[in-house]
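Let us practice reading a record.
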Amino acid sequence: MKTIAAIVGALLLAAAVYTAQAGAGSSGGVCAVYHPQVPSASHFSKTIDNPYFPLPVGRTFLYRGAENGKREIDRMHVTARTKTIAGIAATVVSDNVYEPPPKLLEKTFDYYAQDDRGNVWYLGEDTKELLRGGKVDRSGSWLTGRDGAKPGLIMEAHPRVPDSYRQECLSGAAEDLAWVVGRGGSKHLLRTLEFSPLEPSIVERKVYKPRVGVVSEQQLSGGHETLSLMRVTG
């Protein structure tokens, strides 16, 4: 079995290949040469029930963790709202990060949609990081069709090792990539590694459980951040 170091090394190499696709002379950046095969709007369902990324309306996920020694709480809620993006009705998911005692650090709305094959597409996000002095950092926000942004996959219908895919694409702002590095075992868990060329020192591992979704996150390099699922309601 490959060690984590070997897997991370392979991930960095694959990321370099992805980035090189943009070409040194491309004014549009890496997203200019990324062409996702997105189905037409009529081939998207009204529900998101992918086994590894289910988002039924009303469900709430509560995570607890820490980033560089500071405790955090992450509350993700699947709203009943939809947002039409590129003609596709996307489910709006609220994702708020707090520092105890309840102090809001980051407020995000993510937009997801599932095609009729079971792939879950990531169509954009509106994120606000609340900084000292009342300042707000919106970097990382993007929306399919705006400023050249293109959608990515947040979860494949049938993920297998060693699948790789873009999760988002707005050149210079949102370039996350994911690799499937493990699937199976008694609990049928799915494991992925995520990386962005915009933050080259950071590699993160995520673990997904069938019919639940993300159950844990761990930063393997570039810092110390962990997140674990504590409770699911709805």
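A brief commentary: The radius of gyration is 17 Å.
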